[in-house]
Amino acid sequence: MAVALDEFRRRAAGDLPGDFADLERWEHRIQRDMLLGLAMGVVAGALAAVSVRFAPAQVSAAADPYLVVAVVILAGRLSLGFGWALVNCTLTAFGALISRIVCVAVIGGQSPLDGGVADSLNRLLFLMVLSGVLASLTRLSDMWGDVAAGGLAVLFLVDDVDGYLNLLKGAVLPVWQWAAGAALVLGLACALCLRPTLPSRLRASGVAFGLVVVYTLTAAF
User: Which residues cross the membrane (predicted)?
Assistant: First the structure.
């Protein structure tokens, strides 16, 4: 068991550099990934804020927060290993948050730090960072990569489950279909596009389906 865990940690950290030249390339790529993640977060947060303020409700429902989450997933997928994925995804998430606050101050709208919105901010930031870390683990070539891809898909699909259950309870959600569509597309993309082979995609889809069923039964009853 200890050997298996050590092997998992080693491969999750990425291929270690073999000499000083490799180490220098690693350092440059890490710096680039950190700056790229922060920049992508700033741009995504600004676009999300602009869509909420000026775009139709259908567009803003699909873009906020799924555009930012998609960018965090990209940052995690491009990172060199688990630890750097955690750092890059945190930078991306906070870059999006800061740009969102600045845009709200400039163009108006509801700040993510206001009232009831702030209550769910910590949960959203946690889920964004978690999604980026899972995206990094999807680079593993064994079953752990399949589990990570399936778990990543579940983070989106449970939003559809929650919305549908609320509709059954009589809640009025006028643009829910647009948000649900965005979540469904991203969930399927995580299970299917982040795995290299058909068997691994089927396994990731099976993990996602099983977890969604368990969540649905737990939430409904």
Answer: 34-54, 66-85, 91-109, 175-194, 201-220
CA distance readout (Å), 219 to 29, 153, 214: 43, 18, 9
Please, are residues 93 and 67 in contact by the beta-carbon 8 Å criterion?
no
Q: Which of 90-99, 107-116, 118-127 has the highest mean pLDDT?
A: 90-99
Cα-flanking dihedrals φ and ψ of residue 159, to 5°? -65, -40
Q: Please give the Cα distance from 94 to 188 (Å, whole number).
A: 26
Domain locations in the chain?
19-137, 141-221
Place of tokens 């059954």: 168
Model pLDDT for residues 115-153, shown as the tens digit of each residue:
555 566 777 788 888 898 899 999 988 899 999 999 999
The Cα angle at residue 93 between residues 88 and 97, in degrees rounded to 5: 145
Sequence-distant (6+) residues with CB within 8 A of 201 are 191, 192, 195
Distance CA 147, CA 191 (A): 9
Identify the pLDDT of residue 213.
Answer: 93
Find all residues with CB under 8 Å of 2, minimum gap 6, and list them. Answer: none
